[in-house]
């Protein structure tokens, strides 16, 4: 996703993410569905481009290092305050 490439992933691989099937990723359950999704992407350049861009935007919005660092610092502050 971060590389701006379309992603085909299993339901387990994306269960903790907020991605949408058919938007940022294609969720495929099992080898047959995975192969079909990959072939679909290979045959459809506009879909590849759109999904790659959407995946990159998702990463930028939800996994920015500055945002994650702020959240982590907040967790540390809350825990330190709780212990004092």
Molecular structure report:
It is built from 4 helices and 2 strands. The model has no long low-confidence stretch (mean pLDDT 94). Helices cover 64% and strands 5% of the residues. It has a two-stranded parallel sheet with strand order 1-2. The relative contact order is 0.17. With 84 residues, it is mostly helical. It is elongated. The N and C termini lie far apart (41 Å).
Concise structural overview:
By secondary structure, this protein is mainly alpha-helical. Helices cover 64% and strands 5% of the residues.
Radius of gyration from the CA trace? Answer: 17 Å
Reported for the largest beta sheet, the result is: 2 strands, parallel
- Helix and strand composition category: mainly alpha
Helix content class: 55-70%
Order of strands in the sheet with the most strands?
1-2
Low-confidence stretches: none
Mean pLDDT: 94
What coarse outline follows from CA principal-axis ratios? elongated
Number of strands: 2
Helix and strand pattern: EHEHHH
Highlighted features:
84 residues; two-stranded parallel sheet; 2 strands; 64% helix; 5% strand
Mind sketching the topology for me?
Elements: E1 8-9, H1 11-14, E2 26-27, H2 31-43, H3 45-62, H4 65-83
